[in-house]
């Protein structure tokens, strides 16, 4: 029996980005658009494009995970493959055929994805950073992202996405599918064109805070599991984004107030560790890209650590206080 593919598009105030997304899908497959409380023309645009529209109940805090689960449910049991795509992305014309063929050729694969690229990587350094982030080498991988083609049987067996997670829901599902024996792969085909639309440092900073929140929650949810490395990632974030700057600044302040040159020197030495780490990253990246790009990437990788630390603290404080997490938005509505 041949597979039946369904498409789930999720979005919130994507405007023209959503129009491009829906136009890229083409015909021949059922399409569900799940809207998370848009105040623009998104619902009307999806209706005009022929998609079935599912509007989330906004009395319940919305998340991308909840939207994807609602889209999967709307497709129905007859669908055997689900292509998830964010509303700020456009599908490559050949991707659906490549994804379906890959899954058809390997019954052990739960999910496959290809190259996600930024539409305008030169528009800002932040878009460029996203384009680098999406460059996953083809082959077996541990986690997938938001744009992915999944086998419905694997998705359903793992229980779908975690509704309450505001970030990191894709790795969480990936870990649970792999625990059931399924595999995930990145394949050497173009998949989607993404529009990050990040033009300001504040947007990039909030996105980094969001990733730190995800690291912390993933580490907590899967503590002790050999299928995840988020505990290690979180320790690295806490060291470079929290311990080093805090310890260095504290020693400098104490030394300056007490007039102790040795303590000031110790503080400077601690902060110098961050400079050494910056140099190590820049040296590594220089092997694969021009010096200016290597320095820019190293700078932002180090700057992300304090933001990610704040995100992890936000998760920890919310958990201690018994408060549910709320969406960390970094992108405005499209014109």
Topology:
Blueprint: E1 5-11, H1 16-25, E2 31-35, H2 42-48, E3 52-55, H3 64-75, E4 81-86, E5 89-91, H4 95-105, E6 109-118, H5 125-133, E7 139-141, E8 148-151, H6 152-157, H7 169-179, E9 183-194, H8 201-221, H9 230-258, H10 261-286, H11 291-321
Parallel strand pairs: 1-2, 1-4, 2-3, 6-9
Antiparallel strand pairs: 4-8, 5-9, 6-8, 7-9
In words, what does this structure look like?
By secondary structure, the chain is an alpha/beta fold. The chain is built from eleven helices and nine strands. It has helices at residues 16-25, 42-48, 64-75, 95-105, 125-133, 152-157, 169-179, 201-221, 230-258, 261-286, 291-321, and strands at 5-11, 31-35, 52-55, 81-86, 89-91, 109-118, 139-141, 148-151, 183-194. Strands 1, 2, 3, 4, 5, 6, 7, 8 and 9 form a nine-stranded mixed β-sheet that branches. The longest helix is centred in the last third of the chain and has 31 residues, at 291-321. It is elongated.
Overview features:
about 325 residues, 9 strands, alpha/beta, 11 helices
SS-based class: alpha/beta
Q: Major sheet: size, sense and barrel closure? A: 9 strands, mixed
End-to-end CA span: 44 Å
Compute the CA-based radius of gyration. 21 Å
Q: Helicity range of the residues? A: 40-55%
Spans where pLDDT lies below 50 across 5 or more residues: none
Strand content: 15-25%
For the secondary structure, the number of strands is 9
SSE string, helices as H and strands as E: EHEHEHEEHEHEEHHEHHHH
Shape: elongated
Mean pLDDT: 94
């Amino acid at each position: 029996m041949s597979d039946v593919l369904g498409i789930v598009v999720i979005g919130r105030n994507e405007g023209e980005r959503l129009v491009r997304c829906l136009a890229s899908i083409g015909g021949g497959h059922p399409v569900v658009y799940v809207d998370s409380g848009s105040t623009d023309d998104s619902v009307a645009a999806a209706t005009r494009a022929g998609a079935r529209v599912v509007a989330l109940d906004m009395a319940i805090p919305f998340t991308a995970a909840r939207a994807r689960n609602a889209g999967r449910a709307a497709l129905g049991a007859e669908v055997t493959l689900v292509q998830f795509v964010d509303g700020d992305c456009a599908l490559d014309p050949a991707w659906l055929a490549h994804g379906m063929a890959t899954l058809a050729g390997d019954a052990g694969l739960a999910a496959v994805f290809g190259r996600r690229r930024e539409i305008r990587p030169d528009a800002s350094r932040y878009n460029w950073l996203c384009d680098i982030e999406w460059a996953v080498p083809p082959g077996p991988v541990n986690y997938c992202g938001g744009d992915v083609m999944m086998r419905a049987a694997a998705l359903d067996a793992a229980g779908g996405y975690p509704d309450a997670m505001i970030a990191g829901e894709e790795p969480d599902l990936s870990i649970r599918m792999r625990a059931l024996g399924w595999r995930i792969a990145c394949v050497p085909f173009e998949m989607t064109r993404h529009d990050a639309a990040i033009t300001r440092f504040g947007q990039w900073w909030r996105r980094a805070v969001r990733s730190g929140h995800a690291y912390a929650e993933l580490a907590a949810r899967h503590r002790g599991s050999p299928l995840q490395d988020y505990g290690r990632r979180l320790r690295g974030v806490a060291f470079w984004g929290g311990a080093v700057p805090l310890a260095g600044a504290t020693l400098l302040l104490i030394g300056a107030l007490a007039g102790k040159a040795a303590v000031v020197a110790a503080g400077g030495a601690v902060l110098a560790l961050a400079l050494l780490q910056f140099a190590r990253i820049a040296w590594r990246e220089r092997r694969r890209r021009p010096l200016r790009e290597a320095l820019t990437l190293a700078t932002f990788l180090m700057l992300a650590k304090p933001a990610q630390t704040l995100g992890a603290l936000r998760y920890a404080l919310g958990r201690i206080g018994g408060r549910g997490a709320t969406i960390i938005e970094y992108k405005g509505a499209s014109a």
